[in-house]
Amino acid sequence: MMLLCAAVPSLTSLALVSLTGRTADATAPATVVIKMVDMPPSFEPTRVTIKAGDTVKWENVGNSVHHATDDPAVAIKPEDVANPAGAKPFDSGFLPPGSSFTHTFTVPGTYKYVCAAHEMSGMSGEVVVR
Predict the structure, then answer these.
(1) Which helix (H) or strand (E) holds 57?
(2) CB-based contacts of 28: which residues, under 8 Å, 6+ apart?
(3) Has residue 19 been placed in a domain?
(4) 87 lies in a domain?
(5) Nearest-angstrom CA–CA distance, 126 and 17
(6) 109 vs 29, 48, 97, CA distance in Å?
(7) Structurally, how many domains does the chain consist of?
């Protein structure tokens, strides 16, 4: 029993030593999660601000199919979406409940996107890349 007790402080000390000096890197790319919900059909949050190189992950937490696109060729009303100059459009395709889509933003500017399935219900969002 005494041998086991002696080993525990040693493991605790080892764990503390291994964590000492580790800090979060503020310049490391981040992933921001946007939830796709059903009632009302919306993106939560509606607007996010990120840094170039960060990733956005859309998660369909609803019970219906959702979609995230800033591609004017896919949107019902092309004026509902927008990309900064030089940015290629993103498109998740139709996401069944429980699925997700990620996109890494490299071009600064404002991206306006919609859920093609619920665009006429006002399901839209915005990603601002600094």
Answers:
(1) strand 55-60
(2) none
(3) no
(4) yes
(5) 43
(6) 17, 12, 30
(7) 1
